[in-house]
Specification:
single chain, alpha+beta, Beta-Lactamase, 4 domains, 5-stranded antiparallel beta sheet, 22 strands
Length: about 650
Amino acid sequence: MTGKRKAIQQRRKIDQDLENQFRFLQSVIAGARDPILVIGTDFRVKLHNSATQVFHDLKQAPEKNMYCYQLMLGLEKPCALSGRACPLVDVLEFGKAVRVEHKQKLADGKIRFFEILASPLEDEDGELLGIIETFRDITERKQAQKKLQMAHIESERKVKERTAELVATIETLRREIQDREWAENELLKAKERDELLNRVTPSAIFSVDLEQNITSWNAKAEAVTGFRSEEVIGKHCSIFALDPCTKRCGVYSTEITKPIVSKECKIKTKDGDVRIVSKNADLLIDTDGQVIGAVESFEDITKLKQVAEELQAERDKFSVMLSAMEQGMHIVTRDFVIEYQNDILKKAFGDRIGRKCYEVYKERDEPCDICRMLEAVDTMEMQHTEATMGNNRYYKQSYAPFTDIDGEKKTLILLTDITEEKMHEAETLRAGQLASLGELAAGVAHEINNPINGIINFAQLLHDDAHNELELDLSGRVIKEGKRVADIVKNLLLFSRQHDIDPEDIIVSSVIEESLNLVQHQLVKDGIQVQSDFQEGLPFVFANPKQLQQVFLNLLSNARYALNQKYPGANPEKAIAIKTERVSLEGKDYVRTTVTDWGSGIPKEIIENIFDPFFSSKKPGDGTGLGLSISHGLIKDFNGHLHVDSDVGEFTTMIVDLPAS
């Protein structure tokens, strides 16, 4: 028991000694003026003195086991991972004390430099427990080093500057001697070149001083003006100058930009002739940037101006001739660019200079598949064609190739608007067709009416002698269908002779029914239903019944085409609705007829053009582009209106308004 008590007492004595030593170590560290830290290998601060708290401007003591990089630098990760030097890592790597410089911004805003000495801390077995770091303020030493370094740099700079100045002075003197020799040689060469240039240059050249006195005069100037050099040197330039020089000297004017290029003016020769010249001029400036005079060159363009005026007169005469002949003219390059147009085509197409011909003529994004212009240029032979242009007018076109003065092959295109002529031709052709149709109808009437009358008469006899209901029904059907055939032949004959019929008071619904009778077979064949709504008690309209029938036949034909485009086969939506009603327009009574189909519709971008001659949205061969144009004209002749309402893919409604008689 006594031995155990002694061991305890001995242990307490050792602990007391260690505690006393630790306190002593703490008091030593705490009393140090420089910051001292003990950092474990886990980067945690094990011990620090009060100077550390002051150094980092901490309001209270750091948290226990705080990481060194948090305390010293306010970082979230070790210095090595932040691109900074780490004393602990260096001690662990090299196993000896290391020195690291540290830059710190104090609470007062001043920058101080510290030297950190990190020494290894080992246990009694030599195992590394961490490091002891001490901070020493080396700001003054750094400042002194910097001042010394700057002084050294400044000294070296001054030595270099002085040396460079001496070398530059020597080099400048050497270059000045060389430049003087070179300048003298160049001056001599320049004088020889100027004399040679003045002799051989094709332009007249002269120079003047600030008082506008002539200082040089070359041989070409003598040839143009007739004045010899000795007659003008030292004389004022007005000796030969005229407008505009005599009113104001352009070369010395601050309002005129220099150099002056291709300025036309007049001069007088020694013999008193007036010549037109094209002049270039600029100021003469010395090496110091001072104006010391001016130089001018000029060429006699009197003959060129006369030729240009003659060409302009001929072109104007040619343009007037074309205008009188109502001929439009374009000049087109091989690259399809329009580079000239006369007033007729400017009025027809607008200003199209610089545009591609296929854009203007055909509203295309690329050249035409068959290009008459290229064919004319390639064969150097005239080409002719007729076609509808982008403005929906029909033109007769002639392409004449030629080689321009610049050597480029171009084409003169003459365009003659023959829209009205073509319409007259179409009307004439149509009249001829109707005349032929009239003759054919007369023959058909003669050949068919007699047999039909016989059939009707015989059927009537059978009907009168019928013995039962079946015979009555069959004979009655024969009589009815025979009369319908006779009516169709009669309508066909009347339609072919429409120009022989004068306008009269008619009922619109009757004309529509006659039109439906003529196309009923085609509508039934295509599976098209007709829905009619004829308002009763409508007033008469004053019109040619057969011409009005022609209008309705055209509208029905267009409606049928649109429905077949949208519905190639049978479809319950395949229908045409016809409606007549009384409307009041501007205080007057009209009979309005609407023909509506639910077919392909008309795009908005072309709806304004559908009444233009030769305009057609149908496939080639399916339409002439004259149907709606003629119909529009006929309705206009009846003092009525024809317009359209449509939505693509939904419907089209043609509206015919005729004034009440």
